[in-house]
Amino acid sequence: MAHLAHYREAHPLPFVITHYVNLISMIVLIISGILIHFPFLAGTMGAARGVHIFCGIVLFVNCLLRVILSFVLKSAPANGTRQTTTDVKSFLPQADNKHQLGAWLKFYLFAKKDHPLAGKYNPMQKIAYIAVPFLILFMFYTGLCLWGATQSWGICQAFIGAVGGLMTVRVIHYVMMFIFIIFMIIHVYMAVTEGGSAMLKNMFAWKEHGGLTYDITTHDLSGEDRSV
Predict the structure, then answer these.
(1) Which domain holds residue 185?
(2) What is the pLDDT of residues 107-124, one digit of tens each?
(3) H runs (alpha helix) in the chain
(4) Is 110 helix (H, G, I), strand (E, B) or coil?
(5) pLDDT score, position 2
(6) Close Cβ partners of 153 (under 8 Å, ≥ 6 residues apart)
C-alpha cells in the first residue's frame, strides 16, 4: 500500500521544536545518568550531575509546554490532509482509529502486510504518547527525591520513606532510564515502519512529501498529491 502524504500541518513548527528538545534532553540525560551511575571517566562526576539536573528540568518544562500547546494549537489529525483541528484530539479516541488495535498489532508483528487507514497516531501510539508525560513526571519526581537541593522537601521525604530509603529511589530512577530507552527504540520503529523516511523528514526537517490524500470527514482516501 502506498503511503499517505506527509504535510507540515501534521507537525506544526512548535511541536517539531519541542520534539527536538525532548530528544536531545533524553539522550543527554541517558549519557549523563550512565556517567553518574558508572563514574568511569575521572573528573566528570560534577559536570555530569550538573548537566543531568539541568536537562531534567528542561525535559520536565518542555513536556508541560507540549501538553499545554496540544490544547491551544491546531494540527492535522491524520496524515494525508491539511485539514486541522485542536491537537489534543489526535491523542483521544477517533473514528479514524475505531476497532483497529488488533490490526495494528498484527502489522507491527509482521502478521499483516498493510496497516489500516488511521488517524495521525494509531491506537498503540496513542497509548504510548499519553503515558509518556506521566512517566516524565514520575522520573522528574524521583530525580527531585535524589537531588540534595530538594531532597528535604516533604513531598520527597514522603516517597523516600514509603519505598524504604534513597537506595530504592536510585534503583527506581535507574530502571526508569531503561524504560525510556526501550520507548525510544519502539518509537523509532513504529515511525519508520508506518511512514518510512518521509515521516522522519517531515518530523525532523519539516519537509513535505506527496502521496495519498485523506479526508477526515469521510475517514477514507480522497486522491493522490504528487505536487510535493
Answers:
(1) 8-88+103-225
(2) 888 888 887 888 888 888
(3) 13-37, 45-72, 101-108, 123-146, 154-163, 166-204
(4) coil
(5) 65
(6) 144
Task: Count structural domains, the chain.
Answer: 1
Residue entry with cell 504528487: 226
Q: Tens digits of per-residue pLDDT, 58-97?
A: 999 999 999 999 999 999 999 999 999 999 999 999 888 8
What's 41's DSSP letter? S
How far apart CA 49 and CA 45 sit, in angstroms, is: 6
| Low-confidence residues of the chain: pLDDT under 70 | 1-2, 194-196
Residues 85-96 as b/e (b if ≥16 CB within 10 A, e otherwise) read: eebebbbeebeb
The answer to the question of residue 94 being in a domain is no
**What are the backbone dihedrals phi and psi of residue 75, each rounded to the nearest 5 degrees, phi first?**
-150, 165
